[in-house]
């Protein structure tokens, strides 16, 4: 070395240099993916069926990135219907253009491609992507998203010896097209045909319940080592209890929040939720062990044939897993699952996307500006169609995405009139949006008037889960809120006949989708948007992307895909004229 630096400067100087190279000077890195989406064949229960693969894989590839990286994904739709991927839990800061839901993006038509570009700004954690349209998630098309800590921010536990992503889901042999027809005709989904682990059927733990020759998932591990398991319920409508025979689950993270590290023998994972557990291989290897995902809160009459079972295989294992599956929790203990959910706490002293502790955002001290009590109801006939509602409104997706309509000032596509309480009036179909107060602090209470567990997901944000209980929420219920270490996440469950309260800091400009994760409830109308407009001109808000697809009343702005590719370097003169024309027409209509 040419310079003689004091020993204790090395770490600092080296870190500074690393920062200059990786972020300070070079900018945040880019990663590029080219993904073809197509039907492939799979037989999870021994019956051939068409599933949606990404790059020929089911589940799709894992998007493994680090805080603030830029992600570019060119998605080619080789299905026979329109397609969009949504990046569940990725906050798309000031950039709802990349959210991939019907209110923000025109669908990618069959045979077309479209390139997403977004930054995973200021967040860490375990999430997943999935197709957001037409019940397609029931056919697969999902995959994991990992957002790692930046090098400079320590993870609040020792580096695990391995990182394993698990997708658990209820599954039907019927296609997503048949299932959505059933829903529209009021038939309902019926009981699923089984539970999958990473797209695979169950291990034959019982010859009477599981047929021969079904491929199953094997997780290979080394004795004594500790693994991080990222478990996602990517299913259709069934809450699942996850557990591993003779092994503890140490909960460390959920949907981007580091949690207080606590041991659980099992965890209820509701549709759309994600958890990270550390699991230590501390058992003798006299045999393999069962990994189980079994349905929760389903009537025994409707209960499905078999739970999902995968195998944990120690490298020195002496033989196959044996004995009965580990016991599920008691179905009749109503509070078991709710108490478990309440026990999940934020580690307020751990850093995450930023070096300062997560708990330095004192959500409990912020004054609430708007309160919404959102009541969901089971499917009912609305104007002769089977529909579900939130506060008596069943969402109708207009053919022009809300965000595009807003951008081009197209009137009459949506109304900013979503009611903050259930209205005692007949249910109706509408495109009604929550008028968010920018920089406000919204309290939402979900009141579940259905007989099944529901989960609700908000795009663009992580919200604080501050309370849940059985019965009807009242103002007094606020006295039970956790105002200190409730976790910030993006999907929360609401038990039947119960409520869940969340708090949202409305600091992300855009049009953000709030929807039921249970696909049946979502498909039939449990969806609403939160519109957050920054009244000040904010030049950091991401502009309309150059490759935007146009549809609905704006479809005349769209060129054929072949032409688009050729002219993609600059917006064409033609478009400029058309945009001016639209502005003139809109101004005239407004008069
Ligand atoms: C993700 O990428 C990092 C490097 O950026 C690597 O260390 C890690 O093993 C990868 N994780 C998975 C699950 O592939
Ligand atoms: C479609 O893919 C091509 C490369 O295969 C790319 O050049 C083009 O920009 C993509 N189109 C869109 C709209 O993203
Ligand atoms: C190994 O562990 C199993 C389960 O805990 C136990 O039943 C068995 O007796 C143990 N065998 C040995 C050799 O320690
Ligand atoms: C089971 O079915 C009965 C009668 O249909 C219903 O009242 C009850 O809520 C159901 N239980 C669950 C857990 O879904
Ligand atoms: C919380 O995070 C800190 C790191 O900041 C870690 O040392 C501690 O063990 C964590 N606490 C719990 C209870 O998980
Ligand atoms: C929406 O809220 C803003 C204030 O945040 C208000 O100025 C505007 O009038 C509201 N719009 C409607 C349609 O209520
Ligand atoms: C649904 O709401 C009605 C009143 O609006 C109430 O009588 C009923 O008990 C509620 N049911 C559930 C399951 O919460």
Automatic annotation (TrEMBL):
Gene3D superfamilies in the record: Cupredoxins - blue copper proteins
Keywords associated with the record: Cell membrane, Copper, Glycoprotein, GPI-anchor, Lipoprotein, Membrane, Metal-binding, Oxidoreductase, Signal
Broadest EC class assigned to this enzyme: oxidoreductase
EC number annotated for this UniProt entry: 1.10.3.3
Example of a GO MF term: copper ion binding
Membrane topology term: Lipid-anchor; GPI-anchor
Main location class: membrane
Subcellular location: Cell membrane
Leader sequence segment: 1-26
Reported cofactor(s): Cu cation
Keyword Oxidoreductase: yes
Family: Belongs to the multicopper oxidase family.
Protein name according to UniProt: Multicopper oxidase
Organism (species): Handroanthus impetiginosus
